[in-house]
Amino acid sequence: MDESPMFRSLWRHGLRPQGESLDEVRRILREQTGPEADPWDVDVDVLKLGSVQLFNAGDPADAELIWDAKTAGGMDSFCSIDVQLLCGAGLAETKEFLAGRPDADDPDGVLEWLVGCEAAGDFADFSPAAWSAVYDRYYGEGA
């Protein structure tokens, strides 16, 4: 068995963690993306898997942490973490949540990016269930 942190997390939490496992995924992503994290030393595979796990949880508040993961590792993480992963709760629900934040001027740019990607067609025929199935196949859980 591969001993990489990504495979350990996948084995331990699966693609749909709940409860304490979900809290652990959030903690891992915060460690990888926090102010003391070295952007040259982030594990993009862990960031992507954690983003998929949070996407599957469907909590719009996780969009901010997924955005932090997307922007934490330069172009590697930015390109590896699909914009659709921001929207596990659904596109409209996520935009509504982000627009309603106390810092509604969008200082981190996540809502602006999301709206721009929607306008570019990145969410044509989007549904959380369909994207979840894509990642089931990607990680070998739906094969």
Describe, in short, the structure shown:
This protein is an all-alpha fold and 143 residues long. Helix content is 60%, strand content 0%.
Write the layout of secondary structure elements.
Blueprint: H1 5-13, H2 19-33, H3 44-57, H4 62-72, H5 74-80, H6 91-99, H7 110-119, H8 128-138
Helix pairs in contact: 1-3, 2-3, 2-4, 3-4, 4-5
Structure in words:
- By secondary structure, the chain is mainly α.
- It has one domain (5-138).
- It has eight helices and no strands.
- The mean pLDDT is 87.
Biggest sheet features: none
Query: Helical percent range?
Result: 55-70%
Question: Helical region count?
Answer: 8
Question: Terminal Cα separation, in Å?
Answer: 18 Å
Query: How many β-strands, per DSSP?
Result: 0
Strand content: under 5%
Rounded Rg: 14 Å
The low-confidence runs, each spanning 5 or more residues with pLDDT under 50, are none
Q: Tell me the domain tally.
A: 1
Large-scale geometry: globular
Q: Give the rounded overall mean pLDDT.
A: 87
Overall structural class, as computed from helix and strand content, comes to: mainly alpha
Q: Spell the H/E element sequence.
A: HHHHHHHH
Name the features.
single chain; 143 residues; mainly alpha
